[in-house]
Amino acid sequence: MSITVSAQSRVDVKRHVIRPANSSSRSGLLRRNGERLVALFMPVALLLIWEILGQLGLIDARFFPPPSDIAGAFYDLTFNSGWEGSLLFQVQTSLARACIGFLIGALPAIALGVVMGLVPLVRAAVQPVVGALFPIPKVAILPLIMLIFGIGEASKWAIIAIGVFFQVLIATSTGVRNIEKIYLDVGRNFKAKKLAVAFTIALPGAMPTIFAGLRLGWGISLLLLVTAEMVSSDSGIGFLIWRAWQTLSIEEMYVGLVTVAILGTISFWLFDAAERLLIPWKQHT
Asked: Residue 223's CB: how many other CB atoms inside 10 A?
């Protein structure tokens, strides 16, 4: 009889524990699918409303051309403008500049941020300088950067790197300082060297905050890149937007703006994928 009761009790446990877990996973899947549908539906709905208002003449097409006209300009710039005048060439050029400047700014910022988080003396020395320089608009120092580095590629890399550096530095330092002290104490108790503590405790522990800083830094890099290309470039997405303004090609101007938005969206998806790969212990909801 005792065997029968225990078997029955195990069945009851499975009914009360396993089924709710399965139900919870199904509800979570349905919720995520619903969020994806909403995220897809809203831009399509807004574009449709914009198109209808434009076709009915309820908005000024000189400033807000219908999406169908913008799509036509998008096609012409992609397939009917030659390689050096094409949209693909401008995107390739801008992405190369953005990636180089981003790496130049982000890598030393992560290294210095980890040191600032672990060494109070370094933090005390660097933090006032960061507090003084960070609020300065990076666009405002673009003329100075151009005087120092010229109007070539180096000035664009430099202005992007400066903008990215402060975002990633602050995020990394904050992430390291927010690590629970017990983890650092465990490393010290096991006589771990400072470099080992930095790479095995501080850097992984601060990784979620670092990724937040990297996202912000990438957004800043696109903003500064477009600004720099408007001022001193004969190629790139910023140059495309500026040339469209000079020639009053409003549709081409919108093509440049939409392209920047698409690049930002895709890059954030890539950041999310990298975060899931590098931070598997973080809960993604």
From this structure: 17
CB atoms within 10 A of CB 266: 10
Residue-range domain boundaries for the chain: 1-59, 67-278
| Residue 154 to residues 39, 65, 94, 148, 232, Cα–Cα distance (Å) | 38, 36, 13, 9, 11
Tens-digit pLDDT profile for residues 43-67: 888 889 988 988 888 888 888 899 8
Does the domain made of 67-278 have the CATH classification 3.40.640.10?
no
Structure confidence at residue 23 (pLDDT):
57
Mean pLDDT of 98-109: 95
